[in-house]
Amino acid sequence: MTAPPLVLQWGRERYMIKYDYEDLRDTTLGQFKEVCREVTGVPSSGMRLIFSGATMKDDSSPLAYYGIYPGASVKLIGRKEDGERGRAPTQEEREENALIHRLDDIANEACDRLSSPMQAYMANGQLYIEQFGSAAMAGISDPALLEIRAAERKKLDDAYKMVSESLMQFLLKIDTISCPPDADKARQRRKQAVRQLQGWMDEMDRKRDLVAKSEATISQ
């Protein structure tokens, strides 16, 4: 399953940064600070990064060393340099930031609500394939076992329907947000949010198809 993005919180701003488990093992705190500097403008020498209430200090240690995982939230404390801080945002920038906030809220809500159900569906789907979709089930007519299998299949179907319908609702919410042609950052964030949710839907569909394929193998 696609790893949920890391959330960088800086005041009222929230940035979604794609890191999977391997990235977290390979990326040092110092390297991550440079990423934070690029997206926020806060100099790396003047920022403080906090995870689970503790300040991360050793720039040479990988992010995984601090227990950070995909989907975790990291808090940044720091200010932009004076030149950046002194310029007031334009009306267009304020409107674009508002759009980005709306898109982030939708993506974050989808992640909070659906990450666990999706992970459960993927795990339960694989378990179903191993228990009820193997060649060992061929020819078995035990009513009790078949009843259990039917009950587990219904649970999978219900879980798939709930998650896929919820994903579609979140995609429709994103679709209602119109970004002006010159709002490049907001348009990019919109594309990222759509790709993220569509990727989750594709993974759900693939697991659903694998479950169906395993049943078709039995019936042959």
TrEMBL record:
Q: Name one cellular component (GO) term.
A: cytosol
Q: Name one GO molecular function term.
A: adenyl-nucleotide exchange factor activity
Under the heading Gene3D superfamilies, the entry gives:
BAG domain (1.20.58.120), Phosphatidylinositol 3-kinase Catalytic Subunit, Chain A, domain 1 (3.10.20.90)
Q: Which GO terms describe its biological process?
A: protein stabilization
- Tell me which UniProt keywords the record has, alphabetically: Chaperone
Domain Ubiquitin-like positions: 28-83
Cite a single Pfam family from the UniProt record.
ubiquitin
Q: Which residues form the BAG domain?
A: 147-208
Q: Which PANTHER family match?
A: BAG FAMILY MOLECULAR CHAPERONE REGULATOR 1, BCL2-ASSOCIATED ATHANOGENE
- Give the protein name, as stated in the record: BAG domain-containing protein
What is the species listed in this Swiss-Prot or TrEMBL entry? Coemansia javaensis
